[in-house]
Structures are given as structure tokens and as C-alpha cells.
Amino acid sequence: MAKSIIRWVGILFFTIFVGLIASSRLYVKAQAASVQYRAHVQAEGWQRYVKDGASAGTVGKSHAMEAVRIKLQGVSGGIKYQSHLRNVGWTAWVSNDAQSGTTGQSRMMEAIRINLTGVAAKAYDVYYRVHVGEYGWLGWTKNGEIAGSVGCSMRMEAIQVKLCAKNKKVATSKSYITRPSLAVQSHVGNVGWQKAAADGIISGTVGRSLRMEAMIIRCTDFLGGNGIQYRAHVQNVGWQGWCNSGSVSGTTGKSLQMEAMQIRLVGNIALPFDVYYRVHVGGIGWLGWAKNGASAGTTGGSKRIEAIQVKLVRKGDGFVTGGAAYRDYSPSENPNFPTQIARITANGQTVDAFNGVPAKYITGLHNSDQGIYCCAGYVSSYYSRVYGVSVWNMFTNATPSASSGYFYQTKSPKAGDIGYQLNSGGRGHWFIIKSVNCDGTYTVIEQNWKWMSGNATYCNVNRKVSYKLTRGFKVFRWSKRTN
After folding, report:
1. Same domain, 121 and 149
2. Residues 6+ apart with CB under 8 A from 201
3. Would you say the C-alpha torsion 113, 114, 115, 117 has a positive or negative sign?
4. Is the pLDDT of residue 93 over 50?
5. Do 313 and 388 have their domain in common?
6. 160 with 55: CB under 8 angstroms?
7. Which of 66-70, 96-100, 329-333 comes out lowest in average pLDDT?
8. Alpha-carbon span 155 to 133, nearest angstrom
9. Are 412 and 466 in a shared domain?
10. pLDDT cut 70: percent of the chain above it
11. Residue 42 domain-assigned (yes or no)
12. CA torsion angle for 22, 24, 28, 30 (degrees, to 10)?
């Protein structure tokens, strides 16, 4: 009996010993579980494998991740994953070191999902987070949830992945950026507040000759900040101050029409998106699309806005603007003569013309101080062709002479008069007054007012001058009478 007891006790201790060894080996095996991964990076290609929370990809180089491979070591089961690619969407799930994403196509990854399968899924959670271009690291997420962005045109640049035992708690936070939603609400004369119109939908009225009086634009939060600001140009008021998302811009109860508007994005939303907007104007119809703070509508013409459209567009996506978005009818700026800069690429190039007389330029700085391409050459050509008069004596601080009649100085310029100023070197420069503007400036046509940038030659077209701002400014008028 005693021997039997001793034998059974020995068997029991042996069993316990073996069990402890087995448990220890399983514990060691569990502790050795690892996740390894590598990234294919724009302009670099495949990087080496990293593991267990280390970064794959790049930070601070603005290089997109284009593909990824992920595998497990030291644990049974598997790992699967899928990528969201720009202009493609979600790819099919792949697993166990297969490639997800593309190579050789310059197509950036935007988001990823990762999940465990089999035995690994019962013992572990897989945690991961991504670094998004122009924003930074997003929060950790786990087990098949989305990390990154969809529909925001924001590139994945780096990723970190790690395994954690099921009973271990790991803090998670916002890991996924969604496309912000936008809505526009209009207050219409004789109607009041309309229902909000979603991104790209017309707000206001068309074909009813009703004025828009106010607007509210709402944009959902995008990684902090209100995201959008806007303001209205109102009849008898002018430009109002900027409003934040959800505020009223314009007026109500005053029967005052909106005439123009501006919308801009602020904060993180301005990195991946542009905001486009256009207006329907009474008596004109739809104008072209403006974007990112530019004016849409009219000023100076007492023309009402009747409807608006607003759209968020991912940067880099094509968008047809459809012509001018804004018209200025105020007398302070002649809309027929906008100021421009022209590049001179050939000798004898015509950059402007007035009353059929072309202004011509040649390349370089110091080869047109005399002759037909100099400043006085245009004045002489203009008066010869328009008035049949020869003009000379156009030197510094001189009064021009004419073959008939005479020139006298005037303080009330008009189109066709000869203008004069001192250039930066203190020498006289001559031109023709092209238009008189009510803001005290004068639009001119001229030759030989140019500069160099690198090896390129540039000139102004429709330059503005004034008595207040232009050095040595004088104007001479021709009289047919004999002096």
C-alpha cells in the first residue's frame, strides 16, 4: 500500500513538473510573438523590415508610401491587411507578407486596415497608426479599423504596427480622417431662410429675380479649427468682416441685396482641399468659379446675387472654372485695361495697342534707348498716325515740340495726352495716356519700360501712374492752334 502511494505521488510530481515546463515554453513562445513590416516609398523603393512599433516609411521628406508587406513571427495564425489608394479606393485583402498597394505607378496610399486571423487573433490585438503628410501622426487603432484618410487626398508617409496581448489595454484616439461635409443656407428676399444645401448644390433661387440677402456656411470640424470663413459685399454697405462657420454674413430685415462674396479655408482643412464657389447674378446669369478667398459676383453695378454654389475639391483634382468669377463696374478701375506683365521673347514684339498704334519691345535693357523702340519713339508714332503731327524734343525736363500747333502742360489729363515721368535713374520717360480713372490714376501705353529677371525680359502692360505716386509726373496736351 505504501509503495503504491509513493508511486502515485511520484507520478503526480512528474506530471506537475512536465506541465510547468510546457507552460513555461508556451509562455516563452507567446512572449516571442512579433509583427514585422516594410514599406515601399516614393522615390526610394522597398525599405528593410522593421518590427514591433518601429516606423516604416519616412517622416519629414513628403514621400508617400505606395505599398506595404506585413508578416507575423513566433505565433500561429496569420495577419491580413488592405490599402486605400488614391483614385482607386480599397484594394482586396491580402495576408502574410503579400504586397498591398502598388509599385511603379506613383500611386500613394491614403489609409490601411490590419487584422489578425486564427490563433493569433485569439491571443492578441494588432495596433497600428499612420503618419499623414502635412499633418503628422494620427492616433492608434486596432483590429481592422481604418487608419489614415479617405477622400481627403492626404498621403500616408509612415506606419507603426505592434501586437499586444488581449488583456493589455492600449490607449486609442482619432486614427481616421474623413472628408469634411459642407452646407450652405441662403436668406432670400420675400422668402426668408431656405433649407441648407449640401456641397455643390444650388442655394438661393434662379429665374425668379429674387435677391439673396444673407448666407450661412457650415463646415464640419477637420482636425481642429473652424475650417471655413466667408464674407459678403452688401448693397449700400460694402464688404463686411469675415465670419466663421455657422455665422450669418449679409443682412436680414433690411431688403439689402448681396452683390459679391468671398470664401476661404483656414487651418488644417486648407492643406488637402480648395474651396470653389460661384454666383448667379441678376441680369447676367452664372459667373465662373472663384476659389480660396477670391471675389465672386460684382461690385459697383448694383447687381444682385440670386444663387450660389460652393464645393470642396481635393487639391490636385482638375476643376473647370468656366470664365471670370468677378466683375468690377466701379469707375475707379477701367475693366477694359487690366494691368498685366508681359514677357518679351522676340525683337519687335507687340505687347499692346491704342487707337491702332502698336507698342513694340525688343529683348534686353540698353538696346532700345533710341529709335523706333524707345519711349519717345512710340509717342512720335502715335501722334503721326493719329493726328498727322510730327513730335520731337522729348528729353529730360523738356516740353515736346510739334510740326503744327504746340504742346502745353495740363493738370487734368485725358486720353491721348503725352505723359512724362522720371525713371529710377533720374532720366525722363515718355508715354501716352490711355485712360483716366476716377481713383486719381491714369492708365498708360508705352515702350521701353522693362526689366530683366535672369535672362528674361519683362514689361508692364496698362501700367498705372498718378500725381501722388509717380516721380516727376507731368502731362502735355497738344493744341492745333499756333502758339
Report:
1. yes
2. 184, 309
3. positive
4. yes
5. no
6. yes
7. 329-333
8. 5
9. yes
10. 90
11. yes
12. 70
Task: Looking at the structure, tell me whether residues 247 and 291 fall in a common domain.
Answer: yes
User: What is the spatial distance between Cα 411 and Cα 474, in angstroms, rounded to a whole number?
Assistant: 8
Please give the average per-residue pLDDT across 147-166, as a whole number: 93
Tell me whether residue 213 is in a domain.
yes
308 lies in the same domain as 362: no
Beta bridge partners of 323: none
- Beta-ladder partners of 113: 82
> In the numeric block, which cell numbers belong to residue 232?
459678403
pLDDT of amino acid 29: 43
Task: Give dist(CA 310, CA 218) in Å, integer.
Answer: 11
Q: Given a cut of 90, is residue 265 above it in pLDDT?
A: yes
Residue with cell 468659379: 289
Positive or negative CA dihedral for 297, 303, 305, 306?
negative
* Residue 292 shares a structural domain with residue 208: yes
Query: What is the end-to-end Cα distance of the chain in Å, rounded?
Result: 152
Contacts of 47 (CB under 8 A, 6+ apart): 38, 39, 40, 41, 56, 57
Q: How many domains does the chain have?
A: 3
Give me the domain span that covers residue 350: 340-479
pLDDT score at 198 = 96
Please check whether residue 8 lies inside any domain of the structure. Answer: no
Task: Provide the pLDDT confidence category of residue 4 given band limits of 50, 70 and 90.
Answer: low
Q: Mean of the per-residue pLDDT values for the chain? A: 89
Q: For residues 43 and 63, give the distance between their C-alpha atoms in angstroms, rounded to a whole number.
A: 7
Structural domain contains residue 3: no
> Strand 326-328 and strand 450-453: pairing?
unpaired
pLDDT tens, position by position, 343-358: 999 999 999 998 889 9
Strand order in the sheet with 456-461: 340-344, 456-461, 450-453
Q: Which residues contact 127 (CB under 8 A, 6 or more apart)?
A: 140, 141, 142, 161, 162, 163, 164, 170, 172
Per DSSP, the three-state class of 378 is helix
Q: Which of 22-36, 129-143, 363-377 has the highest mean pLDDT?
A: 129-143
User: How large is the C-alpha radius of gyration of the chain?
Assistant: 36
Same domain, 169 and 69: yes
Both 447 and 464 in one domain: the answer is yes
